[in-house]
């Protein structure tokens, strides 16, 4: 997915105690795992993206994700 272009991996900052479950797993573009719980980290349907983490607090990878998002919005 173009949201993760130029990124080999990402350590993401999470600060939530809930998990949003997608109605359709085909909308999930990234998964994560905490303990034995696997859940969506990012979703996309058409031109709408959503993440369950804080890219602004996720270091250089998070900043790259924001740059990728802005590049797609301005394209």
Number of strands: 3
Average pLDDT confidence is: 89
Low-pLDDT stretches are none
- Secondary-structure element sequence? EEEH
Global geometry: globular
Task: Please report the number of helical segments.
Answer: 1
* Order of strands in the sheet with most strands: 1-2-3
Determine the fraction of residues in helical runs and give it as a percent range. Answer: 10-25%
Strand content: 25-35%
Rg, nearest Å: 12 Å
What's the N-to-C terminus distance?
Answer: 15 Å
Describe this structure in a few short sentences.
The chain has one helix and three strands; from the N terminus they run E-E-E-H.
Please explain how this structure is put together.
- The structure is a single chain.
- The chain has 75 residues and is of the alpha+beta class.
- It has one helix and three strands; from the N terminus they run βββα.
- A three-stranded antiparallel sheet has the order 1-2-3, with no helix packed on it.
- It is globular.
């Amino acid at each position: 997915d173009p949201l993760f272009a130029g990124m080999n991996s990402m350590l993401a900052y999470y600060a939530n105690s809930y998990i949003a479950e997608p109605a359709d797993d085909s909308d999930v573009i990234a998964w994560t795992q905490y303990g034995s719980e696997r859940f969506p980290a990012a979703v996309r349907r058409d031109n709408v993206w959503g993440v369950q983490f804080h890219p602004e607090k996720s270091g250089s990878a998070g900043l790259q994700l924001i740059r990728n998002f802005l590049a797609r919005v301005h394209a």
